[in-house]
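Helicase-associated domain-containing protein, Trichocoleus desertorum GB2-A4. Tokens?
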Amino acid sequence: MNALKDCPITQWVALSDFLRYMIAAGYDFEVSRNSETLSLEGYGSLYDGSWLLLEARYLLCFLFEYVSTLGLIDVAYLHPDEGFLILPSNDYYSDNTLSRYDGLAYFRLNALGAYCLGLSDRYQPAVPMQKQVLRILPNLEVVAVSELSRADRLMLNSFLASVSDVVWKLDQAKLLDAIAQGRTVAELQDWLIANSGEALPQPVAQFLADLQTRTTSLQDLGSARLIRCADAALAARIASD
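Tokens:
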């Protein structure tokens, strides 16, 4: 991890360069004190005293399975046969690669990694640009400004009245039908904001707010039992007791 702190932030680093740097900078380590006893089952010993054969591949596994999985680095991966680590010739092993990790070719330390390693005092997540799919007009019309998916059209047709292939309009009767089927005003409002990428025009926001008030002013509290009293005095007594 100390070697990662020396890497430039948000810049791609070749694994071959990183490994050479680790050796030159003294970031050496041992995976096993008795490396010569290690072997690959069925193929015999593969150890030839090379740091690239054991420690380097351990490092590739660590970067690929742990560091990248935690989201601290981004990785560029090739087919293992195209990797830069090639096995030395061996009488027991005919392939040029040892594992899938041999395909790890490049990595870059991202903003989260820089923050976790103490290279940055704050982390600001990158928010992807929201593609504008709809334009919401003050006259309560919703216009498609880019290609709509089938799901988008189903959503629009569920809540809004269709005017043309690319235009829909907020209609109280249509919305009430959707609400009667279990949909909500909040669901539509959030979806319109997310797909337009901007705040709703004031007339549209007010229209939805009024509809929300109307549809939530009365609530069905369930069935009731009607009891007949012998006289009005008894009914008043029971009601006030």
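Residues 155 and 188 are 8 Å apart (CA to CA).
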